[in-house]
Each structure stands twice: as structure tokens, then as C-alpha cells.
Specification:
Layout (H helix, E strand, L loop, with lengths): L6 E4 L2 E4 L5 E5 L3 H12 L15 H13 L2
Antiparallel strand pairs: 1-2, 2-3
Length: 71
């Protein structure tokens, strides 16, 4: 997925497009969604939620699924 495209976060829900036209997934929190966006935009490799500030294992799995699905 192109993580540099315009993305909208509302609560923990991530949408693509300038106006948030398309639902991508729901993370555990607003902070987790923002952290996932930062990780993906910086192209960092994260193996465990322990390497993050507020993401759960589910958040990391969701980000990987979104990344794979949006290719």
C-alpha cells in the first residue's frame, strides 16, 4: 500500500482518500493508528508490539493485512 497517500484517522478507524472515502480497518486506538502510519511511512520493520509505544499485536497484524491487500 502507498502509505504516503492521504489517510484519515477517526478514532481508531483508518480511511484512505482526502475525504476518507474508503474504510481500511479499525485499530485499537487513535494513537495506535497514528503510530502504524508513522511506522509504515518510515518503512520501519517492527516484529513485536513491544517495539512500539501503544500498538497491540492485532494492530500490527491489521497493518500487515492492509499493506498486503492494497498492493
Amino acid at each position: 500500500m502507498d502509505w504516503t497517500q492521504p489517510l484519515v484517522v477517526n478514532g481508531g478507524t483508518l480511511y484512505s482518500g482526502v475525504n476518507g472515502d474508503r474504510w481500511l480497518g479499525e485499530f485499537s486506538s487513535h494513537e495506535a493508528a497514528l503510530e502504524i502510519m508513522a511506522i509504515q511511512r518510515e518503512q520501519r520493520t517492527v516484529y513485536s508490539s513491544r517495539e512500539t509505544h501503544c500498538c497491540t499485536e492485532g494492530d500490527l497484524e491489521l497493518a500487515a493485512a492492509i499493506d498486503f491487500d492494497e498492493r
